[in-house]
Design goal:
Elements: H1 3-16, E1 24-27, H2 35-49, H3 51-55, E2 59-62, H4 67-80, H5 88-95, H6 104-131, H7 138-167, H8 171-186
Parallel strand pairs: 1-2
Length: 195
């Protein structure tokens, strides 16, 4: 595991702790791909991306967009609800009364958001320098302006999330905000579709 996958895994570990028995890695969009192709892609995910999580106890299920399939994915959770441990985040916030910003996951997310903000600031500066080039073509100018606007919006979003994380004092609203930030910044790849 390298690069982004390793960082994602580390962040996921900060959220859930070391025990992954209560994690189901779910594949989707089976109706849009040939069974053989989908199965090969599912094997690739299990072998190349999800192997460390599977080794720690998580398992893979196919979600087929049916009620029966949803219950098949959720049944193990319902059956094991009493035996499963709580998430590290729950333990830190509920048992230790830590505010979100002081939890392992909150600290990790804060560092990630700070790094993201620095990357966006550097990108904006690089685009500003390119925009000063007097020989720039109109098409290049348009693309640079679009890139600048996109980077500026992402920087503002990261800055807002840093501020929200610093202000968080705990509670359900903080967890909801955290989950939104966490999934947006760290785990787009965990929700990979099969197609």
């Amino acid at each position: 595991m390298a690069g982004t996958s390793l960082k994602n895994f580390h962040m996921f570990e900060q959220l859930c702790g070391k025990d992954f028995h209560n994690i189901v890695l779910t594949t989707t969009m089976w109706g849009e791909v040939d069974e053989e192709v989908g199965a090969a892609r599912e094997q690739e995910l299990q072998k190349d991306y999800w192997r460390p999580m599977i080794k720690r106890g998580s398992y893979v299920k196919r979600f087929l967009y049916t009620k029966e399939s949803a219950f098949e994915v959720l049944t193990p959770f319902l059956a094991e609800a009493d035996r499963r441990g709580v998430l590290l985040l729950q333990e830190e916030m509920n048992d230790r009364s830590l505010p979100l910003k002081e939890t392992s996951a909150g600290k990790t997310l804060s560092v990630e958001l700070q790094e993201l903000a620095v990357r966006h600031r550097n990108l904006l500066e690089r685009i500003r320098k390119e925009l000063r080039d007097p020989t720039i073509e109109p098409d290049q100018l348009r693309f640079l302006m679009e890139d600048y606007q996109r980077a500026a919006t992402q920087l503002q979003s990261a800055t807002d999330d840093i501020r929200k994380l610093k202000k968080s004092s705990g509670g359900l609203r903080s967890i909801f905000n955290f989950k939104s930030m966490f999934c947006w910044y760290r785990f787009p790849s965990l929700f990979l579709s099969i197609s």
